[in-house]
Amino acid sequence: MTGTGKTRLLHHLREAGAQVLDLEELANHRGSLLGNVGPQPAQKLFENRIHQAISRFQPGKPVFVEAESNRIGALSLPAPLWKKLSTATVTEVQLPLPSRAQLLLEDYPRFLDEPADLCALLDRLRSLRGHQQVDAWHEQIHAGDWPNFLQSILRDHYDLCYRPAGSEKSNYQKPSAQLHLPSHHQTDFEKAVKQLLNP
Q: How far apart are alpha carbons 35 and 75 in whole angstroms?
């Protein structure tokens, strides 16, 4: 689910020597409404970046990748990769809601300095979530009530969009394991990496 630290987990896995395919990094996008971090590469360049990353992997060793949608921002995953991901082993990452909110606050600091831009993005959700909900988010943002806003945007928007792996509308297999992170602190991610690399 959104905000469970999947990208952080990939970074920790990479630092531990694991093979990681970070599609959001290659696409220069965090893969959500609020995920724009700058200009995205052209589709062909994105596919070339994926090919270059995969060509460096050692065959026979696992590759860790986030269960992305088939689109990351304006870019599409190559069809063969999308098909391959549908056969991958899935581990579900779980993190308590307050920690998910805090993690988003740390990962998207620009919105604290640009609340008007954030409100403009949220206005796109009016037809989906209703004026009352979006107005409430605006009020929380203007009041600087970031913890409650972030918990609400996770609970009342992102979680409602979530397609559980293994469900009819998901590209992914049912999770074969769960990874429970008690908090968003670094030590918990380091423990999770050891658990993934030494099951």
A: 13
Per the CB < 8 A criterion, the answer to whether 32 and 119 are in contact is: no
Averaged pLDDT, groups of 10, the chain, 199 residues long: 93 96 92 74 96 96 94 93 96 96 86 87 94 97 94 94 88 95 94 92
Instruction: Please say whether the beta carbons of 61 and 81 come within 8 A.
Output: no
Burial label for 95, CB within 10 Å (0-12, 13-18, 19+), is buried
What pLDDT is recorded for position 39?
A: 87
Rounded to whole angstroms, the Cα distance separating 135 from 67 reads 31
Annotate 39-74 with DSSP letters as a single string: PPPPHHHHHHHHHHHHHTSPTTS-EEE----SEETT
CB 120 within 8 A of CB 134: no
Judge contact between 104 and 111, C-beta under 8 A.
no
